[in-house]
Design a protein that fits this description.
By secondary structure, this protein is α+β, with helices and mostly antiparallel strands. It has 5 helices and 6 strands; from the N terminus they run βαβαβββααβα. The chain has a single domain, classed as Roll (ph1033 like fold). The protein binds a DNA duplex through loops.
DNA sequence: GCCAACGTTGGC
DNA sequence: GCCAACGTTGGC
């Protein structure tokens, strides 16, 4: 069971919108980067990921679940890229900010810290557990 | 608003 | 196939 992180600008697609899309979820389209694509292709139904707000907020705000594995992205004219469907599971008890992540030595190797531009990232189980613990939640 | 990091494009 | 130029992203 792998863990992931989905990064989004709130002005483009926010956690509130993800919540509003309910149990049916939505497609996570628009990925146009080959490394991010590789991660999307590795996702299995039922795996979970963090939902991160970039730019102004810069914090992990919620948890999503992959409900449909990789399939073609209809908004990609080149036909090279695909997407998965995700649904909101629950918000974090409190958002975990990038500042807080950077302050944790155990999180220093997170992709979010070292390659912040990558829009879809893998998260190690230890990182996943620690962040939930910081948020006051049971991993 | 600035700029570093990264990816893509195109000339050679 | 290399690499300079350019565009985009996202943290600060």
């Amino acid at each position: 069971m792998a863990y992931w992180l989905f990064k989004s600008e709130p002005s483009t697609w926010s956690w509130d919108q993800q919540i509003a899309s309910g149990a049916k979820g939505t497609f996570w389209n628009g990925v146009r980067n080959h490394l991010a694509k590789k991660h999307l292709m590795a996702m299995k139904k039922g795996e979970r990921g963090f939902f991160y707000h970039s730019n102004d907020e810069r914090a992990i705000v919620g948890i999503v679940e992959v409900i449909r594995p990789y399939y073609p992205d209809h908004t990609d004219e080149s036909g090279k890229f695909g997407m998965v469907d995700v649904k909101a599971i629950k918000p974090l008890t409190r958002p975990i900010s990038l500042v807080e992540i950077k302050a944790e030595r155990a999180l220093a190797d997170m992709v979010l810290v070292n390659n912040s531009r990558l829009s879809v990232q893998p998260v190690l189980e230890a990182e996943w557990r620690l962040i939930l613990t910081l948020a006051g939640m049971k991993p």
